[in-house]
Write a structure and sequence with these properties.
This protein has six helices and no strands. It is mainly alpha-helical. It is 62% helix and 0% strand. It starts with 41 loop residues before the first helix and ends with a helix. It has a single domain, classed as Ferritin, CATH 1.20.1260.
Length: 195
Amino acid sequence: MLAGKGFRKVYNLTGGIKAWKKEVAVGPEETGLHLFTREESPEEAVVIGFGLEMGLRDFYLSMQSKVSLETTKVLFGKLADIEILHQQRLVDLYREITGTSLTMTEFAGKIAEPALEGGLTTEEYLQLYAVDVDSEIEVLGLAMAIEAQALDLYLRAAERSDKQATKQVLLQIAEEERSHIARLSSYIDHQQELV
């Protein structure tokens, strides 16, 4: 009907917002913000982001040993390997900001303790999403949910940061998370086409 009235882009949201199946952050607004003080330098913000990527890689590697299907073990391994690429991007950003030439190993030494992206613990994610860890599609959905949680965390941290340069870095990291979500979404779409 609207298309017939000259509207070029018409979207049908059957079921309204309750039917939305894409990325959504969950939990209280303060979730994960304990990782940020509001006064971080841009460099410190990158170090926190790197710790989150390390935590997510550790999560995927630990999940690999908990699943029984070989295909899902391989998928968790691939997701863990992808986190190395995300870590490298943050190391590159750190080098750009500081003018240093740290290796990834040297940079990882700056991390006191890896944390899971989005600010939730492994157990909280697994309880919240009740994922069948032997279902590739559900594992990919979990990965996408974690990336959405991370995107939301970086946006909230940027919004409340007291330093403009740190805000910009956090927004840049958030855009990286947005691209991670897009890649996972594309991979999920491809997986569903194969089913």
